[in-house]
Amino acid sequence: MLRSVNGLNNVLADNGYPGRGVLWCRTGDGDTLGGYFLTGRSPASKARALHRTSEGTLLVAPSEPGAHDHLRHYVAARQSGRWLVFGNGEQVATVADRLNSGEPPVVALDGLDYEPDPPIFTPRLTVVADGGPGGRAWFGAARHSGGGRTASNRLTVEVGGLEPGEGVLMTTYRPDGHAIATGDPFTEVRVAAGDRGGLLDELWASLPPRLRIAAAVFSPGGLAEADVRQVAPARG
User: Is the pTM here over 0.85, yes or no?
Assistant: First the structure.
């Protein structure tokens, strides 16, 4: 168990606006799981829901009839052979296609760019998780430079050997007290949940109530059975 690392609830409670986030962790019962969440401030951001398709993918879709917005509506999680891919944008489908063509995770995560939404330039966050023994995962982040450079900064972190109660989290945002700023590259966290249901409870309770939209917990090969909680009802 990590002893010098903050708990998931404290890390998220200390973040006034986490935006969207990806989590890879191991619960107390030894299960290795992925987590994804959405928070939002504007009516357009809040008018979204997580929708499980018959093909076993997880979509961020409009909760009300409306036009598709490629920055707000996308495949959030998809299985590609042995690989579980999840993240905060349309790059999830791109990475899954690359993996399906035989590219290894580090290569599949390369060449991505941050979102074209100035002045924030939201990072694109993606996780590729191995469904085999050991529960390895690769976190990829495409981020805007802190200066004037337009080229993406790309970070790939390989995570393996998680013990029960350990996890890694990435969030798109972390306000600096005056404006929305992009989040830390990654954060190691402690997870208190003893099992999958407890993880969804813990993740949901950790999100700022006024900003909550949706959260999901899932395992490699099990997206069709993803546990989902959300404010708005999912589309049929």
Answer: yes
